[in-house]
Design a protein that fits this description.
The chain is built from 14 helices and six strands. The protein has three domains: 52 residues; 104 residues, Orthogonal Bundle (DNA polymerase, domain 1), CATH 1.10.150.130; 166 residues, Orthogonal Bundle (hpI Integrase, Chain A), CATH 1.10.443.10. The relative contact order is 0.08. The chain has 355 residues and is mainly α. A three-stranded antiparallel beta sheet has the order 1-2-3, covered by helices on one side. The protein has a three-stranded antiparallel beta sheet with strand order 4-5-6, with no helix packed on it.
Length: 355
């Protein structure tokens, strides 16, 4: 018998999700705006399953996980950011080696749970135990492949990952530089043999931009007169304008005056074809500054934390960092408590002044 679930959509209207499952076969599900349409689909799907006309099954028996991954890498993955392409490429390679020969119809929740637990026991290239968050990213990479195969390619009827529990991840990390740490780090970057490192770090602290956004920055997208940079290659693929002021602006002006006209890149390597690599110089600077447990991405957290502590609202922080929702910036809310207390104190002083 089919089951129906009534859901409220974002616009306040209702939709109806119907699921059909017969004699232990893979379940089929679909969402409709009208209950009558859902019932008609359920009836025809039941008949198709009973008569062996349910088309996703033959495709699922013919296709393998390796074929799925290959198709996904050719059509879907190239649309993502460079970092996502790199990271998910590594993750999908693991899945291909582990279960690539399996037919899609043979991939069950039990198989995926076994792989999940194997990932949790493994280690990274650096020899460290793989974190729960990392395991979840591996699961998400292949899960999205199955989702595309189900919704767009119609290779399978359901996604087996829907029945696999993800690990509960620890609360979002908020690591930012103290005043003393910031001074030591900037001094170490300034004395680095990498001529761009100091400017890159100052820009990251001043704008909250990601490393890739900064390193791929080009001069046509830098407006020194208005104090503005335009980011074309962002994580969410949305064009974003970010103000630059103070030392960051002055450093970019100095760099512009001495830059090579043969390349549009702001931070090019010697041949001008690609951005310069700063990983080694960054690691050396952090070590020289005597700072523990600090990554380049934490410069972004530092910028957001400084904004919160100086009275910026969550919507303002989200806008500067380029977040579509406020969920990612809620981690900084506690840092603005002192500012919030001052605002409330000023308000109550005004409204109760006559009393």
């Amino acid at each position: 018998m089919p089951t129906f679930e009534k859901r409220r959509r974002g616009d306040g209207k209702f939709s109806y999700r119907v699921k059909v499952r017969i004699d232990g076969s893979l379940s089929r599900s679909k969402t409709f705006r009208r209950l009558t349409d859902a019932k008609k689909w359920a009836q025809s799907t039941e008949a198709a399953i009973r008569e062996g006309r349910d088309f996703p099954e033959p495709r699922a028996r013919k296709r393998t996980v390796a074929e799925l991954i290959e198709c996904y890498e050719q059509t879907v993955l190239p649309q993502k950011s460079k970092s996502m392409i790199r990271n998910q490429g590594i993750q999908l390679r693991w899945w291909r080696e582990r279960i690539g020969k399996l037919r899609l119809s043979d991939v069950t929740a039990a198989t995926l749970v076994e792989c999940r637990d194997e990932l949790a026991k493994g280690k990274t290239k650096s020899g460290r135990p793989r974190s729960k968050a990392s395991v979840n990213r591996y699961l998400a990479a292949l899960s999205h492949s199955f989702t595309v195969a189900m919704k767009e390619w119609e290779w399978i009827a359901t996604n087996p990952f829907e029945r696999v529990t993800r690990y509960r991840e620890p609360r979002d990390r908020v690591r930012y530089l103290s005043d003393d740490e910031r001074a030591r780090l900037l001094a170490a970057c300034k004395s680095s043999s990498n001529r761009y490192l100091y400017t890159v770090v100052v820009l990251a602290l001043s704008t909250g931009c990601r490393r890739e956004e900064i390193m791929t920055l080009t001069w046509p997208n830098v407006d020194l007169e208005r104090g503005m940079i335009v980011l074309e290659k962002t994580k969410n693929k949305e064009r974003r304008a970010v103000p630059i002021t103070g030392p960051a602006l002055e450093l970019l002006r100095e760099l512009r005056a001495e830059c090579c006209a043969d390349t549009p890149l702001v931070f090019p390597r010697r041949d001008g074809r690609k951005p310069i690599a700063i990983r080694k110089a960054w690691d050396n600077a952090v070590k020289a500054a005597g700072i523990e447990d600090f990554r380049f991405h934490d410069l972004r957290h530092s910028c957001a934390s400084y904004l919160a502590m100086n009275g910026a609202t969550l919507p303002e922080i989200a806008h500067i960092l380029g977040h579509r929702t406020y969920d990612m910036v809620k981690r900084y809310a506690h840092l603005s408590e002192q500012h919030t207390a001052k605002v409330l104190g000023k308000m109550t002083a005004q409204i109760f002044i006559s009393n």
